[in-house]
């Protein structure tokens, strides 16, 4: 982004900047990092190509809730929002919303989002976390990028009024190596200057759930007070007696509960492009503004994948196996083999730098093994339910094995034994 472009933006940003407070920017992530998608429906970072910040539209199924509250776990990197469904609500809810009965015949809805938190300051050995209880949010529905950070046009909802700590968009971006597009990405871990960063689609939905009307675009400078109490804690969040986690990759430094876990599902705009999209002034705001923005790959009601291609039935890298005979395929000229750990394992091929992908299967990564060579592993993804369907594996962060390939140094969350 050019300095001239930033200066041009600043003239119209004074009101919004005052409302944002002190959250500071984080660095962008360049290159073909883990999670890059070839789907054109993924939320784009238009600023990286010199365009102005986009305005975002929400057309999902979750209504604005009543009597909302939030709990943020700095330990688990989760943000839980709960509230009552409107009286008389008879609409369908998406698969990631949990409901439970409340007083007077009402229904309580609960959603958990992955978040980033404050990074540890080497000078003090502490993170600027801001734990405590807060009684309301100062919300800005449209936040243009300025000289402080790539806000991306996403909502900014401040709970710590003096320090400016808030829920806001992911700030970080990566470049899709296949399409060349810059895409927003949440790095779930201690990476911020104290704020709670969220995936772009998630913060748009959260704003809507808490009472901002995100079904229409907003102007710079709009501010609304939301009567939502927020608790920020260093401890695990607990829901119905269990420690809260959410199905979303995290950095290796993040602690995640391993026992007595209430695992919440979440969603990704790469699979559900019709839920959140950028505002297009040439299209009507008729409830179908986000329709036809990309291939819908998941059932919003159940979370099931839709019409997986025939290749999903074929053995491939990451397919569960018990012998080499279960891995009858070739990838990049290498014959598949079964990497066993006990009675079962997963199909793989040796690699240097890169691995071949196959439609219907999780993306792959050339991971460095404990022995120091390279083997292709499936990334933790929706297709394998975060490694849950590959017996004997769990999500682990691994370095890329470069060998003689000349590939860039990268890391990815893979299904490892």
Q: Label the CATH architecture of the largest domain.
A: Beta Barrel
CATH superfamily of the largest domain: L,D-transpeptidase catalytic domain-like
How far the N terminus sits from the C terminus, by CA atoms, comes to 42 Å
Low-pLDDT runs of 5+ residues are: 1-21, 24-41
Strand count:
29
Q: State the CATH topology of the largest domain.
A: L,D-transpeptidase catalytic domain-like
- Taking all Cα atoms into account, the compactness measure Rg is 22 Å
Major beta sheet, strand line-up: 4-5-3-2-16-7
The major sheet is characterized as: 6 strands, mixed
Question: In total, how many domains does the architecture comprise?
Answer: 2
Global geometry = globular
The top level CATH class name of the largest domain: Mainly Beta
Helical content (DSSP H or I, runs of 4+): under 10%
Number of helices: 3
Helix-strand makeup class: mainly beta
What portion of residues belong to β-strands?
A: 25-35%
Mean pLDDT: 87
